[in-house]
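Severity: low
Component: inverse-folding endpoint
Summary: output formatting inconsistent between runs
Steps to reproduce: submit the following structure tokens with default settings.
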């Protein structure tokens, strides 16, 4: 049965709160005209902005100061602040915005693979450059000088902090929220502040839009119950693939309606699972796209069974970890909102999903001469704990390079490291090298987790730390690198210059 047909999932558990949920239906195709002034001067300014942005992108590649993933957008917006709105209005195409704390880049990769398997041409910010300039860069580099995109789908990963600057201009047909975790408090504020900002964006979406929400996240599932947009929920409905209590670092463990502690039938990641409030009855909503069975694969990743509005799918997720099963479920939920020119058969979905490879830095395996490196981007307690557990599932002692910095992009507050379960990692460590602008603070955290300071190497310089860590790692064993965003990019640049990896924008 084609993936994009729609019918209710049998046995879906109804929501116990009083809020009703609109029935999901395809939004009307196309866009209403007249989103930007159709004047000669406006068109000329747009053309100039696009030409300047494209030139900036070409120059950045030639001069090797980037891959053209963000600088073109900065230049184009300086010429014409309305460039994103005009490009979005100039083309008759569908648009999808993906946001949330974790999983945006991988989810977008899966959505793109499914869309391309269905015959759609996709324009996206594939590199994960998701701030305003990166979003604009992706749109303008795919457009001609009149702002028209030769594609049927504009797919954009958008940082939570810039949603209010992107969504009103873009007016996406589908708005997907993966999850909400405590993340960079100095940028986003506390959890509920960030949630309110996302909810405000949802409340302004028109009735023709569809909001795709993680039903297993109590906070995300509660977003904007009276919003005009239709809504669709995804999650995991396999009780045998989880634990009974949220981990100690879980963020949303109280009912969003009455603040009473939630009870869980099963927990899959942090606070994501099948929850219910014993006080007011608020519970996980019925899932429109539900992963109902999970089995380890003989290959990398998992074999999953998914109930969708089109029926049951049996799929191979080639990416390790429960978090990637959530990413796959989110992408499949998003796929049900797209009006494809040809319907996507289950065999096409399986082939498309099975061909997805990790985004750069997401447990990326790298051949470093005669050594192996596993590069893991970690930015908050949930991503660190989830990734670390995948590493711990592999046999043998672990050789670790931990690199963290306190830039504005990374977040200046390192208190979240104390909610990472490093105590589980330390007993399996054979060697530890610590690096970054806050190397001493990270080393202190490892010391309190039980690491022996006498065997710990603290080397702030990233390239020197990589060399020292590799030198202490036997050739038959991998070096596992846990790194925040900036150190991850720095270390990968070192590897790129040595010929170990391609530029991230070519991944």
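Observed output (run 2 of 3):
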């Amino acid at each position: 049965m084609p993936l994009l047909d729609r019918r209710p999932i049998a046995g879906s558990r109804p929501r116990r709160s009083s809020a009703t949920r609109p029935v999901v239906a395809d939004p009307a195709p196309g866009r209403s005209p007249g989103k930007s002034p159709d004047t000669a001067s406006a068109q000329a300014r747009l053309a100039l902005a696009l030409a300047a942005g494209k030139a900036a992108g070409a120059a950045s590649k030639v001069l090797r100061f980037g891959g053209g993933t963000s600088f073109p957008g900065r230049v184009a917006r300086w010429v014409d602040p309305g460039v994103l709105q005009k490009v979005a209005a100039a083309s008759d195409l569908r648009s999808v915005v993906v946001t949330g704390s974790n999983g945006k880049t991988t989810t977008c990769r899966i959505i793109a693979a499914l869309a391309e398997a269905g015959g759609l041409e996709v324009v996206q910010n594939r590199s994960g450059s998701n701030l305003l300039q990166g979003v604009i860069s992706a749109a303008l580099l795919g457009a001609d000088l009149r702002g028209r995109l030769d594609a049927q789908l504009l797919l954009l990963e958008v940082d939570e902090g810039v949603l209010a600057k992107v969504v009103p201009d873009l007016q996406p047909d589908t708005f997907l929220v993966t999850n909400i975790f405590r993340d960079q408090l100095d940028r986003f504020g506390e959890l509920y502040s960030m949630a309110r900002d996302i909810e405000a964006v949802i409340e302004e979406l028109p009735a023709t839009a569809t909001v795709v929400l993680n039903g297993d996240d109590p906070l995300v599932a509660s977003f904007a119950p009276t919003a005009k947009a239709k809504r669709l929920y995804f999650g995991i409905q396999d009780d045998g693939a989880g634990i009974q209590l949220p981990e100690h670092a879980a963020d949303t463990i109280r009912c969003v309606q009455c603040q009473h502690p939630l009870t869980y039938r099963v927990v899959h990641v942090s606070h994501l699972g099948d929850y219910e409030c014993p006080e007011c009855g608020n519970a996980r909503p019925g899932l429109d796209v539900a992963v109902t069975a999970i089995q380890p694969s003989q290959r990398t990743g998992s074999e999953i069974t998914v109930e969708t509005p089109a029926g049951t799918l049996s799929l191979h997720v080639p990416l390790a970890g429960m978090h990637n099963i959530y990413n796959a479920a989110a992408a499949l939920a998003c796929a049900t909102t797209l009006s494809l020119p040809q319907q996507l058969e289950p065999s096409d979905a399986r082939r498309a999903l099975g061909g997805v490879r990790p985004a750069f830095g997401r447990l990326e395996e790298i051949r470093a001469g005669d050594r192996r490196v596993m590069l893991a981007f970690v930015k908050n307690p949930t991503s660190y704990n989830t990734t670390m557990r995948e590493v711990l599932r592999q046999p043998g002692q672990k050789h670790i390079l931990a690199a963290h910095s306190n830039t504005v992009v990374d977040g200046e507050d390192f208190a979240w490291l104390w909610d990472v379960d490093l105590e589980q990692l330390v007993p399996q460590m054979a060697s530890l090298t610590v690096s970054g602008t806050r190397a001493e603070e990270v080393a202190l955290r490892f010391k309190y987790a039980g690491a022996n300071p006498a065997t710990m190497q603290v080397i702030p310089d990233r390239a020197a730390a990589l060399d020292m860590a590799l030198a202490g790692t036997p050739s038959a064993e991998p070096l596992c690198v846990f790194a925040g965003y900036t150190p991850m990019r720095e270390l990968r640049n070192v590897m790129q210059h040595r010929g170990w990896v391609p530029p991230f924008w070519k991944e």
